[in-house]
Design goal:
single chain, 798 residues, alpha/beta, TIM Barrel, Rossmann fold, 4 domains, eight-stranded parallel β-barrel, 15 helices, 23% helix
């Protein structure tokens, strides 16, 4: 745990924080088909945009393969990229494999993921001798049982057959077989194809380390690595491993084999079985990779959720915790990771962010990226790993290469000139939220469950109203499970929610711990309907769409607040607070905080003797800029009337245009702003093709989608999010001023007309097999609005 910082330390460094908290990017290497010169160009572009580093991910081909996965040629390119990144001050991380989950051609049947398969047959009363013949290579007979549907006994197996004795009827036979799941590595690079490994087997983990991880780390050079990475667990249906009978008996204290059939119904055995799988995953996967990485002096970073059944506390055996998914009033995977970080003392917790942002690729705007990032911050994250940056040769026709899903967040976006401003804002918030410790007075208990995907089961077992009630009250929470309570002092728990029905499966140790919470004056809530009335008071009570993250510093507190909705919100604060916003050059002090749509602020409580500053005076005047206006798309200026939407003239244009006019100013006695208006709200569900996890900001900006404001050839600032307002005072002069507004849109229009990309996807599918589908590509130009969509006004303010 990092040492706490003082309020003065944080205030002083907030404007220009240290570089460690800069957003990073997942860097997709397709093929692999990589050239050193393009690696260098893209790394320089990332550094220039203010990004902090990369996480290399090796994925499916998008063209001729020049360096197959694992080849000496690829390893040399990894080494080259790591050294270039170091020279630019960028962090360099590597995924320990291709696609996901770990696996490949080096994984044979003895190390591959397995599942338990049941064959159920109704039989009569006579005796049966049934030969057991493997239905598929790798099938292994486990056991057979005969019974009446409620009670079963194991039947003998020898000479390749089960021997069912005669008995009463009706009855049924259950035959258990261990089968390979058949799952291969998803989105694999060429040369990385093969089965997913057995996450419950240390031998399988060690084989993957020997064949894949060790060569990658040695190529990158351990001293140059920020971390090695494991993506989310997606080994579907993998609920078996050859050593399970022995391990179950050792860990649970009774034999599994005689009762294996109980897994077919909802019995306590299912919880014990799932718990054994969780422990095997921890001992034989997470710990194995962490120890190996530590031997090289490199942290092991993981998204520890999914299948196999990782518990929230399984994170504790890794070095760096990561989540994904937005939704600050719910329980996304991000909360799974941030809870573990808070409980187990990790000061930094990352998230894979922008995974499905405003699909398809190139559709996302800087406002979309900002809005989703704020959702992650509110869920406890303080390090962003963007998803992501697609490697693409500069000489490719059309837009080049993109990942099948997620935003293409690179310098092919026309709005990239404002990227440095966007990433600088997110960098400041990330750094701020790494200071001190999180204040989360409410805990939500995760009950013992028997599901293979434990994270999803937890979301089903906890009513959606529980996290929503806590967050809308201005409070925050951590998830806690039966392992977490061993490190939590019950006397420090203000309130814990125990989901309805969890009492029947509570372990004795957890029951005693909850009794200790009550004895110390804490509250245990078992009825979600009464939660709101039992919550402790919040330091700040926000409106419903405003989220709050509270950090405790060495000598005070700091708050991050964000408006996650499309309407202006005003908070009444309990005392005057110093306020930093993304659009203001200097902080203000007030007992009120007004946030524009998707705007965020940082609040520092002021000393008791500080008085509230008087409210800022109303604008003296507000007048539209009359023009005449001219627009230049690079082929010379021409007159234009505002509003001006590019798609009305040229549907497939992605790029920039400069709008110019003369601005007449009479004096410099007032503070001057150029204001573009609030934008227009968008009804939820307007883009009906978007899946629920695809984030988009519900507002149509007055500029589509970002702009740089120049006055007398002085760059006054950039805008991409509300309030769409720029201070032009420093550049203004009495008389005639040259105003230039350079508007940048997205690459969505170009994507909609890019037949090269469609042809490329078809060609590589024909050559390498079906490894991906381009996501929502047919909707690329839906609801796109580019250009200067409002007449700006000059605001004069005292």
């Amino acid at each position: 745990m990092k040492c706490m910082a003082t309020v003065d330390d944080v205030r002083r460094q907030f404007r220009n924080p240290p570089p460690e908290a800069r957003p990073m990017m997942r860097w997709w290497w397709f093929g692999p088909s990589i050239e050193p010169a393009e690696l260098d160009r893209e790394l320089h572009a990332m550094a220039a945009a203010g990004l902090g580093g990369v996480e290399v991910a090796f994925v499916y081909p998008m063209g001729p393969v020049t360096a197959p996965f694992g080849s000496p040629e690829l390893l040399e390119l990894v080494r080259h990229a790591a050294r270039t990144a170091q020279s630019l001050g960028l962090r360099f991380d590597v995924t320990l494999g291709s696609g996901w989950s770990y696996g490949g051609g080096h994984i044979g049947p003895e190390h591959a993921a397995r599942r338990l398969h049941w064959d159920r047959r109704e039989i009569g009363g006579r005796a049966y001798d049934v030969p057991i013949v493997p239905g598929w290579p790798g099938d292994e007979f486990i056991a057979a049982y005969v019974g009446d549907g409620t009670s079963y006994v194991e039947v003998p197996f020898n000479d390749g057959a089960i021997h069912v004795p005669a008995g009463g009827q009706p009855r049924e036979v259950l035959i258990a077989t261990s089968r390979l799941t058949g799952q291969n590595v998803k989105r694999a690079a060429a040369g990385a194809e093969g089965p997913t490994l057995d996450h419950y087997s240390a031998a399988a983990a060690e084989e993957h380390i020997r064949c894949v991880a060790e060569p990658l780390v040695r190529a990158a050079t351990p001293e140059l690595l920020g971390s090695v990475f494991c993506d989310s667990l997606e080994a579907y249906d993998a609920d078996w491993t050859p050593a399970i009978f022995e391990e179950f008996a050792r860990r649970r204290g009774y034999e599994l084999r005689p009762r294996l059939y109980e897994l077919l119904s909802d019995t306590p055995l299912r919880v014990d079985f799932r718990r054994t799988l969780s422990e095997l995953y921890e001992d034989n996967f997470v710990k194995v990779f962490q120890r190996w990485a530590a031997g090289h002096g490199v942290p092991f970073r993981i998204q520890s959720y999914g299948e196999p059944p990782a518990t929230m506390s399984s994170y504790r055996f890794a070095d760096l915790f990561e989540g994904e998914g937005w939704g600050w009033k719910g329980i996304p995977e991000t909360r799974w990771a941030s809870s573990a970080a808070g409980i187990y003392g990790r000061s930094v917790v990352s998230a894979e962010v922008w995974t499905w942002v405003h699909s398809p690729s190139f559709r996302a705007t800087p406002l979309d990226l900002q809005g989703e990032a704020h959702e992650h911050f509110l869920s406890g994250v303080n390090q962003l790993i963007g998803h992501g940056w697609p490697y693409s040769p500069s000489d490719r026709p059309g837009l080049g290469w993109i990942f099948y899903a997620a935003g293409a967040l690179d310098d092919r976006n026309p709005w990239w000139p404002v990227a440095a401003d966007l990433f600088a804002s997110l960098h400041r918030i990330s750094w701020l939220l790494q200071q001190g410790t999180p204040v989360r007075p409410v805990k939500i208990y995760v009950p013992p469950l028997g599901d293979l995907n434990l994270y999803r089961a937890v979301r089903r077992s906890i009513p959606e109203s529980v996290p929503r009630t806590i967050r809308e009250a201005g409070l925050d929470f951590d998830l806690v499970d039966d392992d977490a309570i061993t490190v939590l002092d019950p006397t420090e728990i203000a309130l814990i929610v125990v989901p309805e029905g969890a009492g029947a499966t509570l372990p004795p140790e957890t029951s005693r711990w909850l009794d200790a919470v009550r004895a110390a004056g804490g509250t245990v809530v078992t009825d979600a309907a009464t939660l709101a009335e039992k919550l402790p008071p919040a330091p700040i009570t926000p409106p419903p769409d405003v989220g709050l993250a509270h950090r405790r510093l060495d000598d005070g507190d700091v708050y991050f607040i964000a408006n996650t909705g499309a309407s202006v919100q005003t908070l009444t604060l309990p005392q005057p607070m110093e306020q930093w916003t993304t659009h203001a050059a200097e902080p203000t002090t007030s007992q009120y905080a007004t946030l524009h749509p998707y705007e965020a602020a940082v609040l520092f409580p002021t000393a008791a003797q500080d008085r509230e500053l008087a409210p800022r005076a109303d604008p003296l005047t507000s007048a539209p800029v009359p023009g005449p206006w001219f627009v230049d798309f690079g082929n010379g200026p021409r007159p234009v009337d505002l509003p001006h939407r590019w798609e009305n003239e040229q549907e497939a244009y992605s790029g920039s245009a400069a709008y110019t006019t003369d601005l007449h100013l009479h004096d410099r006695t007032a503070r001057l702003f150029l204001d573009f208006g609030p934008g227009e709200p968008v009804a939820p569900g307007t883009e009906s093709y978007l899946p629920p996890n695809s984030y988009r900001a519900l507002i149509t900006p007055p500029i589509g989608v970002a702009a740089e404001i120049w006055l007398n050839d002085v760059r006054c600032g950039s805008i991409w999010a509300p309030p769409f307002r720029v201070d032009i005072t420093a550049a203004a002069k009495p008389g005639i001023n040259a105003l230039r507004i350079v508007v940048h849109n997205t690459a969505a229009n170009a994507l909609s007309a890019d037949q090269h990309l469609i042809d490329t996807a078809a060609a590589v599918t024909n050559e390498f097999g079906h490894r991906f589908d381009l996501q929502h590509i047919e909707h690329a130009a839906d609801y796109v609005n580019s250009g200067l969509l409002a007449v700006p006004s000059v605001i004069r303010q005292a």
